[in-house]
What we know:
- This protein has 306 residues and is an alpha/beta fold.
- Helix content is 44%, strand content 14%.
- The strands form two sheets. A five-stranded parallel beta sheet has the order 7-6-5-8-9. A four-stranded parallel beta sheet has the order 2-1-3-4, sandwiched between helices.
- The longest helix has 22 residues, at 283-304.
Amino acid sequence: MKKDITTLWDLNKQEIDHLLNSSISLKNDHKQGADKHPLVGKSVGLVFDKPSTRTRVSFEAAMIQLGGVPMYINVGDTQLIRNEPVSDTARVLSRYLDGLVVRTYSQQLLEDMAQWADIPVINALTDLYHPCQILSDIMTVVEQKGGYKGVRIAWIGDGNNVAHSWINAAAILGLDLVLACPSGHQPNRQIMQKALDKGIGKIQLAKTPQEAAKGADVLYTDVWASMGQETESALRKTAFEGFAVDEKLVALAAPKAIVMHCLPAHRGEEISHEVMEGPQSVVWDQAENKLHMHKAVLEALLKTWR
């Protein structure tokens, strides 16, 4: 039976732990030049409706390193742009490919694709969630901190799709997560409540970035205006004043705290240049780990869990 990752709720703790262990093992193999090729003869379609650098390249490279073939499919070049039903597209692509990686605006479109496809569907970002990003981020936390248990993670900034997936992860894994978001830019209430109802982990909203950062082991931020919100950029700069991850904020965190950003970054806005390039920044390791986590996800969904 096929398995999808439309949100992190599609995975349980044991499955996430499997992906973490697998991604670290695959990374070690790659560094030693001992890549395995479990997906020879497999192909995956990257159905993208949004621009991408890291997510696209890392999924393509992941599939190639696993011995399979990636196929980039711009939605604008498909019949979806001419209102072909998602159900029709999903069923046809299921006859050609072994998996779909979908990056789009609408979470509903992604879930419709998963409903009608006979092959695994992976969320490569929607306006509501970014599950694979958080899987690779937790991999980075595990590498840097030796695990995720007892690690205090502070989210500073917009309550966006990345924040939503952190909230999901906290509820599934029992993470200690605190979020500081400006008024009017807090996480979706239903997403937050579902996580709180789970009763696992410690998920809280802080009143200020300083409160969130105090004693944190991980400081995480993202752009203030996500894709599709460019017209709000000026207004958001005003709303997010005081929410920059700068040297003063980092000084409030634990002495060996790490700083994370899923990129692209606007230096001088949500993060200072000094912090971005400073000794506590792990953003480049974080970006690299998307490759290895995507390999783990592809291997699991296209082979191990089939």
